[in-house]
Amino acid sequence: MINKVKAKSNDHIEEWGEVTNKIQSFYHWVGKNYFTNHIDIYRIVVGKVGLTASLAVLMAKHKAGEDTVSDWLAAGSDISMLLAGYTGNPAAATVATILGVAAFLTSDGFKDMASELLELTQKYGIADPETGGWLLPPNNQLMEMFPGPEGPDMSDAENTSSPIIIDLDRDGVETISLENGVFFDHDGNKFAESTGWVSPDDGLLVFDRDGNGQIDNGSELFGNNTLQADGTNASNGYNALKEYDDNNDGVLDENDAIWNQLQIWQDKNSNGRVDEGELLTMKQAGIASINTMYKNSSTTDSQGNLHKQTGSITYTDGSKGQSADVWFNTDTGNTRYDGDKNIRDDIRTMPYVRGFGNITDLHVAMTGNALLESLVREFISDPVKAKSSGLLERIIYSWAGVDGIAADARGEYIDARKLAVLESASGKPYKNNTNGTTNPLSGAAEVLKAEFAEFSDWVEAHLLAQTLYSEAFGLITMELNADLSGATWNFAAFEAYLDGLKKTDTKQYLQLSNIFYSYLSYSNHLKDMQDKLGIDPRHTFIGSENIDAIVGSSGDDILYGGTGNDILRGGAGNDTYLFNRGDGQDTLRGDYQSKAETNTLKFGAGITADQVTVRCSGSDNLLLTLAGSTDRILVERFFSGDNWNPLQVVEFADGTRWTMADLVARAQQGTDGADTLTGTSGDD
């Protein structure tokens, strides 16, 4: 098998130039869209061609039907070696690497090989043997990881993390923006936050306190996360420096004991990690002294980072330069966990949900939390009842580590556990701007409850997408463009499946559309697809098999009673009522609303206009009955002539549409039997 693969590879060595050109075009697309720190993944793959050999063997085994799950998990070792040193978006890097491997294996059928390899790695995931985590989680998590979900938040990103930057190239202190994809653990809590960062041309002043050759977190920078001798954090980087000014001359230089321990970190590839050659001595960086005196500033640069304190330095040639304590724009909700992962193999097969803020990915959390693991296993055994039984909330509380908090601990307006989840997921504490307390007032509490509900729906959707609806979500694929210049998500099969459900199973259609909508709640790059195929669950109301009384919201809602004799009340907004044959005897009940609002009754597939009889019922009600069944819909106060009428339009699956005038006319048509015809306040 190995010889066969090697022979095939050698057959195409002469075509390597053509193949690498194709890879370069894809990496250009990936770099433009997802690798804002400009790492050269193409160089990594081409430079480590030898490491693709085992993957070549694996693909050959797959073609012969001899591959196993263990084979694919083991493949993580090789791919992780290809990605050594890369710390940006590992999912995007993994995809780029997969395409490079496929290109090496063959130029004939390159697209087919790459697509198949991509599909299989999505199915099995790629484990990182060095950290114990995932390079690429299984179960189609790529859809949300490109470029990365935005996550729940209680405010916009803030200028919260402060290190001193040294101007190395003598053109002023420069930074890069939050959008460049750099992660760094500013506050030392094992969660690296998405952050603005120093430009590759300048450097951070650092003190490698533990001597491990890495700058692990903000305590090894000089800024507001530097720990002072009294145990408190410094107010800014210059005040942190003053503690090391032994002779109190306002300057740090070779006359101070710490000088030879200070270094300049020039993060040349902007990956938030120290790579070989990036830590410079002060002499290597050409710095002779740093002034500890500073001036306050309110300048925000073009990258969104605040230069709050500015100072000066002296170069070794005697010329003066600039330093600045830059308060980086930081998104504490968008994080990467840098702590111990060590995911057990059995947990890797369970549903995966990524974490936000100070909440680890679900797999990592379950590894150290037996209760959480048991709750997720309970969800897997019966996903349908998870929400109604309270299991979903118990999972979220345990996952965020807030299950021990008393529900009333944050005042009377919100469950303290829900607020604590949002605080953990956003990476910041809640503070009431009105009175300065940490307990929200009623108005703020409603906003926070809605944010928690969205997060809860998102978590549920990701669990359901890997359990009850795994087959449906498996229809969504990532495909390469014909010219291999990029990749796109293909939702065609998923959309066709939804269309089929719409005609045959309205309840399942609505539920899957709701789940899809929530699944993409934090993926703004797929908002168009979310709006096209998804239905907002906040405006979807689905009944049970029993008799239900369903009340909508003040927005544009969809109400479906299902089987049973249900009462449907849409409330304000342009509401849509759904009805299929066999749904029983429903009642539409109105609320006082604007005459500009239009409420629509939509009949399902198989119900045509000639099967529906329209009659008056009582003094001002409308009755629609379906031929050959006991199904009917009573529309209360249809003929009242006021704003309480809940129905303005009836639509059929074949496109037939009845307006109010059509309904009135049909209600006044006599039959061959004895009829009672009721007029309206208009000209009848």
From TrEMBL:
Residues forming coiled coils: none
MF terms (GO), sorted A to Z: calcium ion binding
Residues in Haemolysin-type calcium binding-related domain copies: 621-661
UniProt cross-references to Gene3D superfamilies, sorted A to Z: Serralysin-like metalloprotease, C-terminal (2.150.10.10)
Pfam name, any one: HemolysinCabind
PANTHER family, per the entry: FRPA/C-RELATED PROTEIN, FRPA_C-RELATED PROTEIN
Protein name per Swiss-Prot or TrEMBL: Haemolysin-type calcium binding-related domain-containing protein
